[in-house]
Design goal:
The longest helix is centred in the middle third of the chain and has 29 residues, at about 160-190. The chain folds into two domains: about 70-275 and about 400-425, Citrate Synthase, domain 1, CATH 1.10.580.10; about 280-395, Orthogonal Bundle (Cytochrome p450-Terp, domain 2). The protein has a three-stranded antiparallel sheet. A hairpin with a 2-residue loop joins strand 2 (about 60-70) and strand 3. Helix 7 packs antiparallel against helix 12 (about 260-270), helix 8 (about 160-190) packs parallel to helix 9 (about 205-215) and helix 14 (about 300-310) crosses helix 16 (about 355-375). It has helices at about 5-10, 20-25, 75-80, 90-100, 105-120, 125-130, 140-150, 160-190, 205-215, 225-235, 245-255, 260-270, 280-290, 300-310, 335-350, 355-375, 385-395, 400-425, 445-455; strands at about 50-60, 60-70, 75. By secondary structure, the chain is mainly alpha-helical. The model has no long low-confidence stretch (mean pLDDT about 95). About 55% of the residues lie in helices and about 5% in strands. Bound molecules: acetyl coenzyme *A (ACO) and oxaloacetate ion (OAA). Acetyl coenzyme *A binds near residues 278, 319, 321 and 383.
């Protein structure tokens, strides 16, 4: 890799070459971002895994609506309410539901849990050869590389039969917490100069319990902390076929590639700050607001700072208020409602009441600021990423792990979409791109090009 920052300039590279006039999208009726003119997604497939509802279309008009989400027909709010009944953990049950399509009976669920237990440990010397040898500052990068490397440890890595893919899916769901926790400790050790702590995953623990056990130095956690984390995992497990990472998984799957390639691609997509990576960006943005707004009780000052963020004059200069807006949801994201309640509970309990108030204020003011400073009529609200990082911080989870937690949970959704694509998709996903390239250019020899440049310089 070249370290020369000016290499682009030296070789004559200019981003201008890549610019395509926005008008051309209209002229050729090309759906930018695979979106219809009203912002709704272009229909790209069918799914029986989940349903994401955020607006209604009546007589061709899109109208904002309250959001709802169901997994295999079960409302997420209902699943969340019954979370942890009879001592079970909700996330594992949701994984079963998503993968198999129905809620398990006792025998089926016990077999599923046993399979997860058997698959928690990493292959022999994987920790030494992969995790410790090539640490990364970014745990999502580490997770993606780890998943890709697991290919080498699977004797039947390339088979795409449902029987083989369900086996691989269970193995990946079980291994993700260990990969994330060890990746985190490798980063803490090699980059932050902390001690290296590698707790073995415990067979009898749930996924949420194992995460807390492995990421904490003293390995201790309370049943309540595990329940709240379990709930967060449940809420992040699945979100339709069109979300960027699931679609990535489906695109890769449709080429016939192996499970590890398709899933590591999905992890890479989730990492982006406009997708799952937003949960970390929200926390950074809130810290930035706390630092720059003098009076945090002055809503006017907060509002004008949000305006600065949107106008790219503050924050990370992306113009985005992280944790706000959604491709489908308009008036509300059902997951946010549940996470907000958890954030409020933990904040009151742990003395972060003022911080929670700030979150609520930003949540309330951001849509108004968006409408005013962006001049956009789109109805926006807080998405799943808005409160999740705050909840994790109150569970004492390091911020490097916020997006990896999303990936641990979403593995269930990705694997289900991979199975659905393999079983019911069947055609390679291959949309078209209208070419706006000017053809018919005559080849110019090197000596002629030399002359042309000299003439230009003269
Ligand atoms: C798990 C998840 O992935 S949830 C989403 C997590 N992402 C974030 O929280 C990042 C902030 N939000 C966003 O970037 C967007 O709302 C997205 C990517 C989530 C959805 O985007 P879309 O609904 O497709 O919005 P769309 O791309 O149509 O945007 C319309 C305009 O509003 C802007 N916009 C949308 N959301 C925001 C926001 N939160 N802050 C500022 N501007 C926004 C877009 O940048 C775009 O501006 P432009 O026309 O100047 O390019
Ligand atoms: O659906 C989307 O575009 C993003 C999202 O909320 C998710 O993947 O959970």
């Amino acid at each position: 890799m070249t370290d020369n920052k000016n290499i682009g300039e030296i070789i004559g590279f200019s981003p201008e070459v890549y610019k395509i006039s926005p008008d051309l999208y209209k002229n050729y009726d090309v759906k930018r971002g695979l979106r219809n003119l009203d912002g709704s997604g272009v229909l790209a497939g069918l799914t029986g895994i989940s349903e994401v509802h955020g607006y209604v279309v009546y007589e061709g008009e899109k109208t904002a609506d309250y959001g709802s989400l169901s997994y295999r027909g079960y409302d997420i709010a209902d699943l969340a309410e019954h979370c942890g009944w009879d001592g079970r953990f909700a996330f594992e049950e949701a994984c079963y539901l998503l993968l198999c399509g129905f809620l398990p009976n006792d025998t089926q669920f016990s077999a599923f849990l046993e399979a997860l237990r058997q698959n928690r440990a990493l292959p022999e010397s994987f920790t030494e050869d992969m995790i410790l040898k090539a640490p990364s500052k970014d745990i999502m990068n580490k997770l993606s590389r780890s998943v890709l490397t697991l290919y080498s440890y699977d004797r039947n890595a390339d088979s795409t039969t449902p029987k083989n893919v369900i086996r691989q899916s269970i193995s990946l769901i079980a291994k993700m917490p260990t990969l994330a926790a060890y990746g985190y400790w490798a980063k803490a050790h090699y980059f932050d100069r902390k001690s290296l702590i590698l707790h073995q995953p415990q067979k009898e623990y749930s996924i949420a319990e194992n995460i807390l056990h492995m990421i904490r130095e003293n390995s201790k956690f309370t049943p309540e902390e595990a329940r709240i984390l379990d709930l967060a995992l449940l809420l992040h497990a699945e979100h339709g076929g069109g979300n960027n990472s699931a679609f990535t998984c489906r695109v890769l799957t449709s080429s016939g590639t192996d499970t590890y390639s398709a899933i590591s691609g999905a992890i890479n997509a989730l990492k982006g700050p406009k997708h799952g990576g937003a949960n970390l960006q929200v926390v950074k943005m809130m810290n930035d607001i706390e630092k720059h707004v003098e009076n945090l009780h002055d809503e006017g000052e907060i509002y004008s700072y949000l305006g600065k963020i949107i106008k790219r004059k503050a924050g990370d200069r992306s113009g985005l208020v992280y944790g706000m807006g959604h491709a489908v949801y308009t008036k509300s994201d059902p997951r946010t409602e549940i996470l907000r309640a958890q954030a409020e509970y933990l904040a009151n309990k742990n003395g972060f009441g003022e911080k929670f108030e700030l979150y609520e204020t930003v949540e309330r003011l951001a849509p108004k600021a968006f409408a005013e400073f962006k001049g956009d009529k789109k109805v926006i609200s807080a998405n799943v990423d808005f409160y999740s990082g705050f909840v994790y911080s109150m569970l004492d989870i390091p911020n490097e792990l916020y997006t990896p937690l999303f990936a641990i949970a979403r593995m269930a959704g990705w694997c289900s979409h991979r199975l659905e694509e393999l079983i019911s998709g069947g055609r390679i996903l291959r949309p078209a791109y209208k070419s706006v390239c000017k053809n018919g250019k005559e080849f110019v020899s090197m000596s002629e090009r030399k002359k042309l440049y000299c003439e230009k310089e003269e």
